[in-house]
């Protein structure tokens, strides 16, 4: 006895995990008929709809896993209010090339000028492109040591292709947290991209860590320390003109 064809087809599509085609099959077949598509064209349309559904679900899940504090995009950033921002450089960061190259990006500026907005927007663009992203407030790094979960957290933070550390320097690090951040940067060194926002110029990072050795090592690992040659390429973006000890224009730096 022949199986019931609609139910049999439904089970096969489920087994193949083609759930978008399964859920919309009647409507898709009607659409193919109205457009008078050939079999090849109809199959192409079905595959496109399935891929679109899977991509949308991946993006939605990745947005949740990234733990962004809010929804921001590049279109909502007021570049006119920040004339020091090079719009072209921001658009270049949004392509994700710096992630593919394992670069470090520093967004420096006074509180309230939009550093976190840009970081979240760039992170969301990276997810749409296909990269994994994790957003971590710098203040949470201290909790891992206090909770006795240092190794677990280090492994977790080292996994995504892009790690965003927000507001480095907003509050001084305890020595344990400073060492944790150094270990984290070292693990990601040349393995994954890093985006750091800070209200402090790189030269002031020593006052953040409370440890002169770590204070020297962290800029070197992020490519922020002045060196004859940088092994870890980085880009430094200034997001405000009124920040003391911070240059008033965006500066892009890449490895030689």
What's the overall average pLDDT, rounded?
Answer: 78
* End-to-end C-alpha gap: 71 Å
- Nearest-angstrom radius of gyration? 23 Å
Helix content: 40-55%
What this model shows, in words?
By secondary structure, the chain is α/β, with parallel strands linked by helices. It is built from eleven helices and five strands. Helix 2 packs across helix 3, helix 3 runs antiparallel to helix 6 and helix 9 runs parallel beside helix 11. The longest helix has 28 residues. The N and C termini lie far apart (71 Å). The C terminus is likely disordered.
List the topology elements.
Blueprint: H1 5-15, H2 19-34, H3 39-66, H4 87-94, H5 97-100, E1 104-108, H6 115-129, E2 133-137, H7 141-146, H8 150-158, E3 162-168, H9 175-188, E4 193-198, H10 205-209, H11 212-222, E5 234-238
Parallel strand pairs: 1-4, 1-5, 2-3, 3-4
Helix pairs in contact: 2-3, 3-6, 8-9, 9-11
Please summarize what this structure is.
By secondary structure, the chain is α/β, with parallel strands linked by helices. It has helices at residues 5-15, 19-34, 39-66, 87-94, 97-100, 115-129, 141-146, 150-158, 175-188, 205-209, 212-222, and strands at 104-108, 133-137, 162-168, 193-198, 234-238.
């Amino acid at each position: 006895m022949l199986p019931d064809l609609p139910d049999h087809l439904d089970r096969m599509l489920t087994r193949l995990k083609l759930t978008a085609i399964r859920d919309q099959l009647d409507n898709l077949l009607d659409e193919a008929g109205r457009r008078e598509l050939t079999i090849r064209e109809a199959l192409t349309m079905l595959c496109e709809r399935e891929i679109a559904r899977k991509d949308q679900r991946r993006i939605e899940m990745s947005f949740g896993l990234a733990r962004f504090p809010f929804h921001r995009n590049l279109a909502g950033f007021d570049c006119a209010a920040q004339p020091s921002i090079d719009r072209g450089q921001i658009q270049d960061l949004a392509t994700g090339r710096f992630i593919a190259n394992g670069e470090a990006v520093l967004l420096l500026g006074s509180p309230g000028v939009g550093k976190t907005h840009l970081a979240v927007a760039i992170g969301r663009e990276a997810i749409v492109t296909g990269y994994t992203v994790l957003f971590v407030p710098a203040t949470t790094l201290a909790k891992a040591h206090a909770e006795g979960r240092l190794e677990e957290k280090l492994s977790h933070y080292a996994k995504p292709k892009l790690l965003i550390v927000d507001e480095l320097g907003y509050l001084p690090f305890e020595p344990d947290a400073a060492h944790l951040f150094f270990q984290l940067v070292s693990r990601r060194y040349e393995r994954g991209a890093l985006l750091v926002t800070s209200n402090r110029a790189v030269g002031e990072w020593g006052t953040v860590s409370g440890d002169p050795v770590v204070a020297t090592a962290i800029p070197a690992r992020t490519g922020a320390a002045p060196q004859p040659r940088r092994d870890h390429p980085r880009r430094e973006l200034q997001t405000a003109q009124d920040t003391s000890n911070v240059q008033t224009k965006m500066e892009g730096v890449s490895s030689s």
